[in-house]
Design brief:
By secondary structure, the protein is an alpha/beta fold. The protein contains 12 helices and 18 strands. The chain has 2 domains: 273 residues, TIM Barrel (Alpha-Beta Barrel); 86 residues, Golgi alpha-mannosidase II (Immunoglobulin-like, Sandwich), CATH 2.60.40. Helix content is 28%, strand content 22%. The strands form 4 sheets. It has an 8-stranded parallel beta sheet with strand order 9-8-7-6-5-2-1-10. A 6-stranded antiparallel beta sheet has the order 11-12-13-18-15-16, with helices on one face. The termini are far apart.
Length: 390
């Protein structure tokens, strides 16, 4: 009897232990997601063309590697409970689509929901977690975005931990992207469960706005990150949602600010535009290597809001090799003149000497920390700086 009790306890300990693929997402994931542009109007032809465009436009070389199909790819379940891809939109099946994406040197992400149905009323994974995870593993999926609609009275942490365990049991390493909109403070428990977690409601394509169902503009999402940066780091990232760059509403200045702050947060960078026909300006914003390097810095430290002067905010981010990044953002509708001493902040890190100051959007060195940084920041624009030891 004692041996039986020990055996049962060992099995329980094994099952209760967090089972997450720890080696994944050591840097914030980068890629593309179908939802912001296409919503439910997605099909395998578009996905293949997007994969081609990631390569052709240089986005793959810049680090964008995940092609993620969001809601509406699934249509039902068969008599055995197996998930069925929509045969009209995905006639070749998901496995063939995954193989195509992999043939381009990219990775494939898929979508499901912790509830009984997805947000668009397609079959969710509740009660089918292990069966769905096995299907994704068989198809070769590399990332699962897991939503939070139609969840009833489910416990969020337990629901996401169950899918984590299902993925681990299926045996194929997949990034688990928790998408419960920050409702249950996933930053407090997500590190042992998933690799990224959404911190807010869905982003909407605007700079400064909020709608009645909870969608937030760029500024509102930035504001929601102020107190939670310390929870983010290698293998477990705060996710302020996908990028709206290139979707035709934000100005170029607003898109620079959007991209800059997501990089300062060490956020996943998931493009949400139609990259098949994006403008050169959009491509330039999405693939600026100096900005991307700040997002992908190996320390993985999220920025701190160092100062706020009315509509001018200064955010600060330590980087590897004792370097630093600063981001000065102008939230107002008018230009702001600056005359800023950066030395005081870096002194808090007990570093001495002068640093070169580089404007990463202009790709120009603009001085050193010996002198104040002076200039004008246009309305809804940004001055993003990297400080490098001389």
């Amino acid at each position: 009897m004692r041996k039986l009790i020990v055996l049962v306890l060992c099995i329980w300990c094994s099952l209760s232990k967090a089972q997450k693929f720890e080696e994944l997402a050591k840097k914030p994931p980068m890629g593309w997601n179908s939802w912001n542009k296409f919503e439910c109007k997605i099909n395998e032809t578009i996905v293949k063309e997007i994969a081609d465009a990631l390569v052709k436009t240089g986005m793959k070389n810049a680090g964008y590697e995940y092609v993620i199909v969001d809601d509406c790819w699934q249509i039902g379940r068969d008599s055995l409970g197996n998930i069925i891809p929509d045969p009209e939109r995905f006639p070749s099946g998901i496995k063939n689509l995954v193989d195509y994406v992999h043939s381009k040197g990219l990775k494939f992400g898929i979508y499901s929901d912790a509830g009984t149905q997805t947000c668009q009323g397609r079959p969710g994974s509740r009660g089918y977690e292990f069966q769905d995870a096995r299907a994704y593993a068989k198809w070769g999926v590399d990332l699962l975005k897991y939503d939070w609609c139609n969840h009833g009275k489910q416990n969020a942490e337990a629901s996401y931990a169950l899918m984590r365990d299902a993925i681990y049991k299926a045996g194929r390493p997949m990034v688990l992207s928790i998408c419960e909109w920050g409702t249950n403070k996933p930053w407090e428990w997500g590190a042992s469960v998933g690799h990224t977690w959404r911190t807010t409601e869905d982003i909407i394509n605007c700079f400064d706005c909020k709608n009645n169902w909870g969608g937030l503009g760029v500024l509102q999402i930035i504001d929601a990150q102020v107190e939670i940066g310390g929870y983010s780091g290698p293998g477990h990232w705060n996710d302020p949602d996908m990028l709206e760059i290139g979707n035709g509403v934000l100005t170029t200045s607003e898109e620079r600010l959007h991209m800059s702050m997501w990089a300062m947060f060490s956020a996943p960078l998931i493009a949400g535009n139609d990259i098949r026909n994006m403008s050169a300006k959009t491509n330039e914003i999405l693939t600026n290597k100096e900005v991307l390097a700040i997002d992908q810095d190996s320390l993985g430290i999220s920025a701190t809001r160092w100062m706020k002067y009315a509509d001018l905010e200064i955010w600060f981010k330590p980087l590897s090799d004792n370097n630093f990044a600063f981001c000065l953002i102008n939230r107002s509708n008018q230009p702001i003149v600056i005359n800023q001493d950066l030395k005081a902040t870096i002194k808090n890190y007990k570093v001495d000497g002068s640093y070169k100051v580089r404007d990463v959007w202009k790709r120009q060195n603009i001085g050193t920390t010996t002198d104040n940084i002076k200039g004008t920041i246009a309305a809804h624009d940004v001055l993003m700086l990297k400080l490098t030891k001389k």
